[in-house]
């Protein structure tokens, strides 16, 4: 009887990105390249611990009062308040007026989950509970919302013909969506396309969202990583706050601080007034208590040190520029190799137009699969590559493989 207890549980498919990494790890081919993983690598292909994180760690561990006590349910206050200023701006009227309810979360994924959980319980959906996601979006977004009873609906975002933004399709979808719809957007370094709206396009989108009384759900996983400038990458979020768009922001420090395994993140919900913000935070606390009780301490204390210490903060900004500029240089070199050296058929301008860690190459499914199977260049079958996986040692081999895949000679 006990042996039959879980017989009806189906075997779930493995996560596509983690499956790709596992295949790469077991491959013995000497020229293999992993362009699937969403983590920064240095020019030697190694994980990079930011120098500022090393300094903050030494400072933290040398504090005689350092301990492993529980944090409050909604996290470390000196972290969440500094994180809110980072994304909303130090002069944010929402912060000054006490309209921001913040909670520390299990990185950006936890922020998205907590936000979705809050919305499913308290948001006044116009009919069916649904969220509008860009096509494509980070693959985990779909599961995050389905798991709390919110149905994902896709809106046009990426135009494969131009390898750029389908602005008109995006705006039309916003106009046709039921009033008060929840719209998830990436404020910078869109994952997986690397295609971001311009500031003027953000203004157009905000205009439609305001007219339709939609709710903006920002997932910000790459602040600073897109352009190398923390303030520049937060522009869309701050503009929407300024325009008083009903909204929330999910924030991650995995990429821009290299704290992938520490799971450092925050959720910031913008309210119309301080009383509302207090009520929202009280419910976030109730939800968080039942989910994880309270968030982890170490990474939050590291970021609190970095964000609140002027010297460490300036060093962090320099470290961010180091990462962003290396990725930008890889984009330029890949473009040069494809257009000048290999003269690969097609237009490759999108490689340098796109921004952030990822790039949609424009390779189709068959070409992407050939890159995996024949060139041992591991990438997702939708043509996405992580620019952080490129370096001066492997970029020529990758460009040559792309050229052969496009020509059908791989």
Automatic annotation (TrEMBL):
Give TM segment ranges: none
Q: Which SUPFAM superfamilies does UniProt cross-reference here?
A: PLP-dependent transferases (SSF53383)
Which enzyme class? transferase
GO BP terms in the entry:
aspartate biosynthetic process
- InterPro entries, alphabetized: Aminotransferase_I/II_large (IPR004839), Asp_trans (IPR000796), NHTrfase_class1_PyrdxlP-BS (IPR004838), PyrdxlP-dep_Trfase (IPR015424), PyrdxlP-dep_Trfase_major (IPR015421), PyrdxlP-dep_Trfase_small (IPR015422)
Q: Which PROSITE patterns match?
A: AA_TRANSFER_CLASS_1
Q: What top-level branch of life does the organism fall under?
A: Eukaryota
Q: Which GO terms describe its cellular component?
A: cytosol
Q: Per UniProt, what is one Pfam family of this protein?
A: Aminotran_1_2
Q: What cofactors does this protein use?
A: pyridoxal 5'-phosphate
The catalytic activity of this protein is classed by the Enzyme Commission as 2.6.1.1
Q: Additional comments on file? A: In eukaryotes there are cytoplasmic, mitochondrial and chloroplastic isozymes.
PANTHER family for the chain: ASPARTATE AMINOTRANSFERASE, GLUTAMATE OXALOACETATE TRANSAMINASE 1, ISOFORM B
- Name used for this protein in its record: Aspartate aminotransferase
């Amino acid at each position: 009887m006990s042996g039959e207890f879980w017989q009806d549980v189906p075997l779930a498919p493995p996560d596509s990105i983690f499956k790709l990494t596992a295949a790469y790890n077991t491959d013995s081919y000497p020229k293999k390249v992993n362009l699937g993983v969403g983590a920064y690598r240095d020019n030697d292909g190694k994980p990079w611990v930011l120098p500022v994180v090393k300094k903050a760690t030494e400072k933290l561990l040398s504090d005689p009062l350092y301990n492993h006590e529980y944090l409050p349910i909604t996290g470390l206050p000196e972290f969440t308040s500094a994180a809110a200023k980072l994304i909303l701006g130090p002069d944010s009227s929402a912060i000054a007026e006490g309209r921001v309810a913040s909670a520390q979360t299990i990185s950006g994924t936890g922020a998205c989950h907590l936000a979705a959980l809050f919305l499913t319980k308290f948001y006044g959906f116009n009919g069916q509970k649904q969220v509008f996601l860009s096509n494509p979006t980070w693959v985990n977004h779909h599961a995050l919302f389905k798991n709390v009873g919110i149905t994902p609906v896709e809106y046009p975002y990426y135009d494969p013909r131009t390898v750029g933004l389908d602005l008109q399709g995006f705006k039309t979808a916003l106009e046709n969506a039921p009033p008060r719809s929840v719209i998830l957007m990436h404020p910078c370094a869109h994952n997986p396309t690397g295609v971001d709206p311009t500031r003027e396009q953000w203004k157009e989108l905000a205009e439609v969202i305001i007219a339709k009384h939609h709710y903006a759900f920002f997932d910000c996983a790459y602040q600073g990583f897109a352009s190398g400038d923390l303030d520049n990458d937060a522009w869309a979020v701050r503009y929407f706050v300024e325009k008083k768009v009903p909204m929330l922001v999910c924030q991650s420090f995995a990429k821009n601080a290299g704290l992938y395994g520490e799971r450092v993140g925050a959720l910031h919900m913008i309210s119309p007034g301080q009383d509302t913000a207090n009520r929202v935070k009280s419910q976030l606390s109730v939800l968080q208590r039942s989910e994880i009780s309270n968030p982890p301490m170490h990474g939050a204390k590291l970021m609190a040190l970095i964000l609140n210490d002027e010297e460490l903060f300036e060093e962090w900004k320099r470290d961010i520029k180091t990462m962003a500029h290396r990725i930008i240089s890889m984009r330029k070199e890949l473009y040069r190799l494809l257009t000048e050296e290999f003269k690969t058929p097609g237009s490759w301008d999108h490689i340098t137009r796109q921004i952030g860690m990822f790039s949609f190459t424009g390779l189709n499914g068959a070409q992407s699969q050939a890159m995996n199977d024949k060139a041992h260049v591991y990438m997702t079958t939708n043509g996405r590559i992580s620019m952080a996986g490129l370096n001066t040692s492997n970029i020529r081999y990758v460009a040559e493989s792309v050229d052969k895949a496009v020509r059908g000679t791989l």
